[in-house]
Amino acid sequence: MATNLPHYVASAKPVPQEGRMPWFKSTAQTYAGIMLWFVFWDNVPASGAATAGGVLGHGLAIALLGVVIAALVCHFCCYLAPGLMGMKTGLSLAVVGTSTYGVRGGFIMPGFFMGILQFGWLAVNAYFSAMLVASFAGHDGGSAVHMGIAIAWALLAVFVGLKGIAYVAKVATYLPLIPLVILLVLFAKTFSGIGSFEPSMLGVTADLNVSSLDLMFILIANVVGFFATAGAAGVDIASSNPTKKDVHLGGLVGVAGVTIFTGCLALLIVAGTYGSGMIAGGETPLEPTKLMESIMGTGTGKVFMLLLALAAFPPACFSSFIAAESLKNTLPSVNPFVSCGIGAACAIGLVLSGQAGNAAGVFGFIGASFGPICGAMTADYLLAGKQWPGPRAGFNPAGWISWACGFVVGVWPTLAPRLGIDFAMPCPPVAAIIVGFVLYLVLAKIGMTTKILSMPSAPQ
């Protein structure tokens, strides 16, 4: 009965049909803004930077193929089922997630957990955006100026996020077009050198002891780890879509399409820069932002840095908004300025410690956390005949056990050395998705799910 439901579930209201929007005005646009964020595509060529040449160590073709595979994994394994449940119910992630984790468990995950992880996103955004602004002003990364800008950046983003989506929208109207234009300009300037690129230009020798498959897995792990929370958030984003076609097209264009576009352009720009001889000798940076001055000249390169930083502010506000909404829903008795203030302090701590500068590490942890959530939600959706099953009572064992096991798989690269185990988990974020999916299927089949509770006018 509805009386068995906590207030945040019983009082949930679906997005009305008259309030729905086509895919190109909602889903695709939102995801395109996320995947155009420079911190994403800047780190694609630098994936596996500990290896000479990064993901370009075995050539351009392998890296490009890795981006395409990663983009399809993001669409089909992370976004699609959550997005379809969001469209069919019109409800939020916090409510839809109760079928996988229970009405008590869903309060914690994905609801509260989604909000907490957004501050990790905010820390990465503030760190790298402030680095570009500091570089424009002639200061190095890690300097007092860099840290000061990052702190101000994080605080301002949280303030805008707390003010609501209307304020976030005001700063997000045209700024996401900036990285699109910059990528195209950089590509046009370096295109002629792509055909001449060889991994040896990046210091790669013939005895490279990392296989092409390993490099591809590293790249896929980085991309999927970056996208994992955005995939689960597809419930909220696609709840504004009127049809299944909108959900599919929004993902194919905004998720898979834009990921392929930005990731591949970033790889081609790096390859073209070295292939054309624009940079030679000394260090071999793999991030397009670190090559901009060599490509465009010092003056224009610095302006591009500043513009990319400005364009990164809307994603920072969006992360803060998602965090604020999650904390308001899960901690309604706590003043959001207090809860978000504590989250902002944690984000600033990550910045000051330098941990936010390890984008691959942050993405890996996020992928480990939300990869199994996406996998389990997909299994839940398929088991219910491609519908939302409805809220389940208490803590749903199938959901929590599948998440715990998937999380261990996802964080295995960090966990294994501490346990003294010599086993390398291939592509941990994707492995975490698979474990979450398969284990939820098995556990649900053997009856380890709690009963489904009735919900007033439960949408399907």
Automatic annotation (TrEMBL):
Swiss-Prot/TrEMBL keywords: Membrane, Transmembrane, Transmembrane helix
Membrane-traversing stretches: 60-81, 101-124, 144-162, 174-195, 215-235, 247-271, 303-324, 336-356, 362-383, 395-415, 421-443
Domain of life: Bacteria
Protein known as: Cytosine permease
